[in-house]
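ok so i was messing around last nite and threw this chain in just to see what happens. nothing serious, just curious
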Amino acid sequence: MLVSGKELFTAAKKGGYAVGAFNLNNMEILQAIIEAAEEENSPVFLQASQGGIKYAGVEYIAGMAKVAAEKAKVPVALNLDHGTDFSQVVQCIRHGFSAVMIDASRYPFEENIALTRKVVEIAEPCGVSTEGELGKIGGVEDDIKVSAADATFTDPQEAAEFVERTGVDALAIAIGTAHGVYKGKPKLDFERLEQIAAATDIPLVLHGASGVGDEDVRKAVERGICKINIDTELRIAFASAIKKVLAENPDEIDARKMLGPARDAMKEVVKYKMRLFGSSGKA
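result:
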């Protein structure tokens, strides 16, 4: 069933677990996520980035996701990931997204608050949950590129003011993760996470979690992370499975025989993450 992201956030915060948010770009990725959620009896966020929307089109993304959610036996939210444009947020809400993230972290503090508040004001009456971002997460997320030099950690006191003035349902924070493939081992600032959780008392979101060690993920969930975004690890599983098929049969031309194993490989990644995040059995 398609539900508001707020429903998933609230249950996760109360239950002390995190819900996985997995990016979809095509049917096989969507099937992998939904099948995993049903097998694990886990709530789940489906999400589309700006790149995913450009690739597949918002109509196709929304259409596929809504069909899958309506058939699913578990609660599913459809989220816009890293929306940076107000009109794009409006477009996603009109097409039935049940959650939106507005990423105005590239702007100065006051401008970030103003744009985020504007999104909250239109999303809330529609029953659509909102996620803002404070601090700059390094790495590359489709069209968003933040160098290591420009990445900044979230300030706990600024976070408290941001939440109070915007009214967001959840806050994405920067505590040492990065988008894309890590070149070294990420080092998360758990003390900062604890301070932000104490100062805001709302569900917190961890972006750039692909490649973060399991022990660190568990620590983050214990300290207030309620939604964890995964994309890169799905891409790796997808590509590895297709390469394996073609290595074993270079003359293969049936897309189903390539995409089927890729779907199965991604499903196993999603199931593992759901167990790690503590959301298995929570649907």
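not much to say yet. Residues 146-150 have pLDDT under 50 and may be disordered.
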